[in-house]
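Render this sequence as a predicted structure.
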Amino acid sequence: MDASGTGTTGGLADDRALLGRTSTAERVADILRTRIAEGFFPPGTRLSEESIGGALGVSRNTLREAFRLLTHERLLVHELNRGVFVRVLAVDDVEDIYRTRRLVECAVVRGLGTPPFPVDGLASAVAEGEAAARAGDWRTVSTANIHFHRELVALAGSARTDELMRSVLAELRLAFHVVDDPRTLHEPYLARNKEILEALRAGERTAAEGLLARYLDDSIRRVAAAYARAVDEPAEA
């Protein structure tokens, strides 16, 4: 795949205004990270400096620094004499992402204070996923699931945790793009997200953590197995 042609920049021109008058590599990286997470640049896509720099109106040096930041986050890879590509994960990467998610997300729920908890963001993500499922739009269901877990981590009120999970969830999305049956992958978690939401809405933090732990334990097996089939690589037993 190649994001160098006209109309293949994932709508980046629409994000140009986000850069404002103080454009920085970090802001460019944030835009590209979001676009990767939301599926505009699938794994294996070559990112053209010319087309992306033109869409965002930034210099080549700024864009290259943004690429370096995202390479450090394991979202991009630089291939000598070929350019910069969205990374294709190994099965081990997928399993490690889920181990990281379990550590962070369960700790966030465990550390919540006294209810009521601010669950409006979670409720919006659940509603987004249910609406997308009714429309048969399984890519948007996947995006809604990412939003749900991002909102869950945001309950910690920690900018550092939010930043960590933005990168982790963007990397996870690289795996979702490779799986050829997104409905089978994502549909079971619509109800499970809602169960977690309802437990938190009721102030039942311990129950919510248990639901989340089981969710992630099941998910690591399902996603790793589906991903392994898609890339023809054996998953761990």
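Summary. The chain has a mean pLDDT of 89. The first helix runs from residue 25 to 37.
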